[in-house]
Structures are given as C-alpha cells and as structure tokens.
Amino acid sequence: MASDSDDRSSAALSTEERRWLERVRAATSLSQLREITGTDTDHDAYIEAKPTWERLRGRELGEPTPSEGLPGDRVVVDSQPFHVHGVTHADAEPEREFLRTHVSQFLDRNAEVHCEQGIRPMYFEDFDAVSEADDYRWAMHHCRRLDISSHIDGLIEETFDEESHGVTGNIRSAASQFREVAYSLIESGADVYGKTFAAALGDTASTFLMDHEHLATGEDFTSHELSKAAAENPEKLVELQYYYKCAFLPQPLEREWLRRHDHELELFTHARNERIAAWALYHTDDAPVHLIVGAAHQPGVCYYLRAYRDDEWDYGEFELVP
To answer: Closest Cα to residue 31, out of 263, 252, 300, 299?
Structure first.
C-alpha cells in the first residue's frame, strides 16, 4: 500500500545538506534558488541545483524498497487519506492486470478512485466507479485562452475525443518520438556491449537529445528504461516512482523554468498536477481516495495535496472547463 512520504529519513545527510534541501523546498522562485546556489543567473541556479537535489534527495529517501500492493505515496488531508500511485502509459498487459487487480480491491473497500485523463480508457474503461479528471481538457482550454502558439494542439486533435471528453492515446511531440527511438536503439545494444556501456551511452544521448524544456519533464534514458521495465514487471513501479521523486525540483521551480522556456509545455505537464489535485479534492466525499497518475505526475500531485493540507494552496472555486 502507499506509504506516507512525509516520513523522510535524513540520517545519511549532514546538517548542512539537510538545511540545503529544506531551503530549496521552501523556495518559490528561481530567483530565490539563485540566492541558495550563489550563482549569477536564474538559469545557472536551476542547472546547478538539479543534480545536487537529485543526489541528496536520493540519500534522504534511502534506496527504494519493494512494496506490498500498488506502490504510491499517502497524503492525509483533514483525516482523509489520499493515495497517489504513479504508473506508466505503456498500455502493457502485465501492468494492466496488476492495476485492475488492485483497483478492484480499492473499490471493494469503498474507496474512491480517480485517474489522470487518458489512463481510465487505457486500463479501466469498464470500471464505472473509476472517474477521470479533465486535466488535458483543462490544459488545452488555457492554452487556447492565452492564445499560445501551439505545437501540441494538432496532436491533441488526433488523440482527443471531443464528444466523450476522453483521451484515446498518448500526446507526444515528434522530438519525443525521436528520443524514444534513439533510446530503444541504445537499449537493444546492451546485450552486445553490456548494460554499463549502454547506460553510459544513454546518459550521453540524453545530454544531446534533451533541450532546456525537457530538463523539467524527465524524458531521459533512465526514465525510458525504468518505464519499460515497470510496464512489463509492475513490481518495478516503485523504482520508477523513486526516480521522479529525486529527478524533479519542487513544483514552483520546475513550473517557472518551463513557463519561461515553453508555456504550453508547462501547462501540459506540471500545471496538470495542480489540476489533478484540485479535481480530487473537489470531487471527493469522505472515503479514502486513490489517484492513478503517470509516474512523472506523482511528485507534483503530492506537492499540491500537501500544500492544500498545510493551507499554502487552495484550488478556490473549482473552475469548470467547457
């Protein structure tokens, strides 16, 4: 079952390292991050902070351990538990069976289950009790309202069913498809050159294939490998979730970075974490809640649930998207 990720173990960290992590957690802007890192620009602050955060966050969390049931994180809001489970979008049969088994158990215990938009038709189309958020529709609505020059909208029209308000497939850019092909080619050579060499080559490829925007979306060789492994063996979902917990800086920093480089991409990635959290909080009754989201969204959704719990964020009057 999901564990309470607020229970962090920092025994392996020095006092200075713990203080650095807490200062970064409290930062709400890249300018504040610049003060913490002592760098000259906001750009340099983000680039320098990412690997340090990932390294220290990994030590803070400790090694990922096998989970009983469907792994995830728990955030308790006013005595009500919200369990956030990160999964892949691979539409693979092993993961489908794994998720359906555990979601059936949640429903049998009278829990509520909500999904990131696109996951329900992929895994739970015949589960009437499983609801689907409107996060893609929300992001598209705001892109059009802001009149952002879009390189995603055309892809959405190919995968978005306006009448049923559902997403029928993954939304990917041509660049994302190119990265996936490149990573797959590197992976295929692991049997010949060895996994260590393949991993090193994958890291090098990530450097060349990822632009500034994708530093904030976690689309590197490691995530590719972990996602593929988790889709075929869902017990490895805990490792994929662990990766994203370490890879992403706190939400305000990732969102500001993306907003500066590609506002549309920010709306379709990290901003949707806020919408999914708001959806769950607005639509829930008093029962335990389970949220099934892409693993890259899990840390952000948890961030907003904790912020709501701590009176640091409120979805206000829930915005209904036409």
So the answer is: 252
Q: Which positions ≥6 away from 303 have C-beta within 8 Å?
A: 250, 251, 273
Decide if 161 contacts 144 (C-beta within 8 A): no
Q: Would you write out the chain's pLDDT as a tens digit for each of its 322 residues?
A: 444 555 555 568 999 999 999 999 999 999 999 999 999 999 999 999 999 999 999 999 999 998 889 999 999 999 999 999 999 988 899 999 999 999 999 999 999 999 999 899 999 999 999 999 999 899 888 988 888 755 554 444 444 444 444 444 444 343 444 344 433 443 444 444 344 433 443 343 334 334 445 555 555 667 778 988 999 999 999 999 999 999 999 999 999 998 988 888 888 889 999 999 999 999 998 899 999 999 999 999 999 999 999 999 999 999 888 7
Q: Is residue 258 within 8 Å of residue 216, measured between CB atoms?
A: yes
3-state secondary structure 215-244: HHCCCCHHHHHHHHHHHHCHHHHHHHHHHH
- Whether pTM > 0.85 for this model: the answer is no
Q: Which of 82, 133, 77, 124 is nearest to 102 (CA)?
A: 124
